[in-house]
């Protein structure tokens, strides 16, 4: 189980129906589409090239369905980790992106262009999200030194974590790539620093 580095393989869930319809999901859920299932199966092929020692997953069903497909045929059980769930976006959840642009024009703009100013009643801020996600990932690095760890999470959760390890500010999020559905992002801790590939 001991590898020279500690590796976390971060994966966003596969495409869902609401992704396809451009609806906000947040802490709510919609089912994986046929494409989402295929994406997870393709990621499984990449993960199969690695020895996975531990697996963690968000409590949200779309992430759990994705990790189940990725871990198929592996003798490993995914552990639910609540703090890697997606950003809670309160009143927007279940609504179309277009309708929230009309109902909350300023916060819609902030979400996409000035995330450091995003503040919606009943929703989390990007800072609150980043604090809980990074704390969880740091704990995994510490707890499982020298292991390969699979983590299936969500779009914004992964993006704010990547920003942290790249030493980017929340205000710089719009300039970072969005993780694609079922995309695999590799965090590697060599004992001195954490690199991303």
SSE topology sketch:
Layout: E1 6-12, H1 17-21, H2 34-47, E2 54-57, H3 61-70, E3 79-80, H4 97-103, H5 105-113, H6 126-143, E4 148-153, H7 155-165, E5 184-189, E6 194-196
Parallel strand pairs: 1-4, 2-3, 2-4
Antiparallel strand pairs: 1-5, 5-6
Helix pairs in contact: 2-3, 4-5, 6-7
> What is CATH's topology name?
Rossmann fold
CATH homologous superfamily identity? Phosphoglycerate mutase-like
- Read across the widest sheet, the strand sequence of neighbours is 3-2-4-1-5-6
- Secondary-structure element order, N to C: EHHEHEHHHEHEE
- Rg result: 16 Å
The CATH architecture name reads 3-Layer(aba) Sandwich
Overall mean pLDDT score?
96
Largest sheet report: 6 strands, mixed
Give a brief outline of the structure:
This protein is α/β, with parallel strands linked by helices. Helix content is 38%, strand content 14%.
Give a written overview of the molecule.
By secondary structure, the chain is an alpha/beta fold. The protein has a single domain, classed as Rossmann fold, CATH 3.40.50.1240. Helix content is 38%, strand content 14%. The protein has seven helices and six strands, in the order βααβαβαααβαββ. It has helices at 17-21, 34-47, 61-70, 97-103, 105-113, 126-143, 155-165; strands spanning 6-12, 54-57, 79-80, 148-153, 184-189, 194-196. A six-stranded mixed beta sheet has the order 3-2-4-1-5-6, with helices on both faces. Helix 2 (34-47) packs across helix 3 (61-70), helix 4 crosses helix 5 and helix 6 (126-143) crosses helix 7 (155-165).
């Amino acid at each position: 189980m001991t590898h020279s580095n500690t590796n976390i393989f971060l994966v966003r869930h596969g495409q869902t129906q609401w992704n396809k319809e451009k609806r906000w999901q947040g802490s709510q859920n919609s089912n994986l589409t046929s494409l989402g299932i295929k994406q997870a199966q393709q990621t499984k092929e990449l993960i199969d090239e690695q020895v996975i020692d531990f697996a963690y997953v968000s409590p949200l069903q779309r992430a759990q369905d994705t990790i189940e497909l990725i871990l198929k045929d592996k003798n490993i059980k995914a552990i639910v980790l609540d703090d890697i769930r997606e950003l809670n976006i309160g009143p927007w959840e279940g609504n179309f992106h277009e309708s929230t642009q009309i109902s909350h024009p300023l916060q819609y703009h902030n979400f996409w262009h000035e995330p450091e100013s995003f503040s919606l009643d009943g929703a989390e801020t990007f800072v609150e999200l980043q604090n809980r996600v990074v704390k969880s990932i740091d704990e995994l690095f510490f707890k499982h030194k020298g292991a390969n760890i699979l983590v299936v999470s969500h779009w914004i959760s992964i993006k704010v974590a990547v920003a942290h390890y790249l030493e980017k500010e929340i205000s710089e999020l719009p300039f970072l790539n969005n993780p694609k559905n079922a995309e695999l992002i590799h965090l590697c801790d060599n004992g001195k620093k954490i690199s991303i590939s």
